[in-house]
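Ligand: iron/sulfur cluster. Inputs:
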Amino acid sequence: MTTHPLQPVALKSQAVNFRALPPLSLYIHIPWCVRKCPYCDFNSHESRGALPEQEYVAALIRDLEMALPQVWGRKVYTVFFGGGTPSLLSGESVAEILRNVRMLLPLDLGAEITLEANPGTVEAARFAAYRGAGVNRLSMGIQSFNDTHLQALGRIHSAAEAQHAITIAQQHFDNLNLDLMYALPGQTLDEAMQDVRTALTFKPQHLSCYHLTLEPNTLFYHNPPSLPDDDASSDMQQRIEEMLAASGYQHYETSAFAQPKRRAKHNLNYWKFGDYLGIGAGAHSKLSFPDRIIRQARYKQPQAYMQQVGKGAPIQTESEVGRDDLGFEFMMNALRLNEGFDSSLFGERTSLSLLSIQGELAEAEKRALLIRDHQRIAPTLMGQRFLNDLLEIFLKR
Ligand SMILES: C[S@@+](CC[C@H](N)C(=O)[O-])C[C@H]1O[C@@H](n2cnc3c(N)ncnc32)[C@H](O)[C@@H]1O
Ligand code: SF4
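Predicted complex:
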C-alpha cells in the first residue's frame, strides 16, 4: 500500500468500503463439560462441582448488552449455543438467555436456534424446556455407536445411552444434527461404516462426519493412540460419502451432510464469510463495519471472563482484518463449500474486486483444484480432497 505523506497511517481503516453489511449470527459459548475428552481442543473445562450457572448467564447477558453498539440495528438470523456442553444448562437458563437476546436484538422470525448436547447429559424435561424456550435445532455429539471406541475416546456415555438420547431428542425436535467422528483409534472400515449405518436408522436431518484430528494441546496429541493410516482413513471417507449420498444426503461442506433444505444455516453463514458476534468465555467474533472488518476474542478462562465482564472489558484481543488477508480469509471459508459460491459473493463480503485475486484463481484453475465460470467459483473434487493445497495459493506471502 502506498501512503501519501500527508495522510494519516490509519489508511488501514479504509481497507474496505461496504455498501451493505453481511448477515449477522450470534454464537453463545458454554465452556464446561462433565469430563474433558482427550482429543478435544475446544475451550471446555471439566465442571468440578456445581456450575456457577446464574453468574455465567448474568455475565452473558451483560456481555451482550455491552456488545450492542457494535451491531446496532442489525437483525440476527441464527443463534448457536456451542461448547463445551450447553446441555449442562437448565431449561430456565436457556430461556433467560433467549428472552434477553430477543429483547436486545431484532431476532429474525424464522431464526435457526441450535443447541449442542452431549448424550451423557440428557433429560427429557430439559429437552422439552429448551424447545419451549425457542431452541429449534439440536446438535448431538455422538462420535460413535461402538462402546469400545467410545471408551477409547473418553466419552461419558455408552452406545445405548447415545441411542436413547437421540430418541428423546426426536420427541422434541424435528431438526437434528448428529456429530460422528471416524478414523478412530483401532477402528476398521466396517466399524466406521456401521456407525454411519446406525446413525441413518434415526434419519437425522443433518450429519457431521469429522475425521479425528490430533490437535495440539490435547492428551491424544502428547500421547498419540494408534490410528488408521492415510489410505485406510481416506477409504472410510469415500465409503461414508457414498453411503450418505445413496441415502439422500447432500454433501455440501467438507464434513457436513444434509437432507434437502436442512443445511445448517448458522454454519453456512460462517462459510459464506458472514458476520458473527460471539459472547461467552473464549468466544470469537467477526464483525463488519462500513470501513473495516474486525476480529475479537473474549477471555478464555470462565472465571477470568466473568471477572472481566464485571469490569466492563470482556474482550481480550481485537484486530482489524488487513486488506491483503481478505482474499485468503474469504477462501478459507467459502472453498469448504463443495458447490463453491456465487462469484458476486466475494465482492459483497470483502468489498474487493475479484480482479484482486485473479492470479491466484488462474493458478488454482491451472492446477485443476478449482473451476469457475462467470457465475460460480467452486473447488474441484481434487480441490476438496486437497483443500490445504488449494488455500495455500491464496495465502499472500
Ligand atoms: C463442541 S463438540 C459438540 C458437543 C459436545 N461437547 C459433545 O462432544 O458431545 C463439537 C464436535 O467437534 C468434534 N470434534 C471435537 N474434537 C475433534 C477432533 N479432535 N477431531 C475431529 N472432530 C472433533 C466432535 O464430533 C464434537 O461433537
Ligand atoms: S468433545 Fe465435547 S464433551 Fe468432549 S471435551 Fe470437547 S466439548 Fe466437551
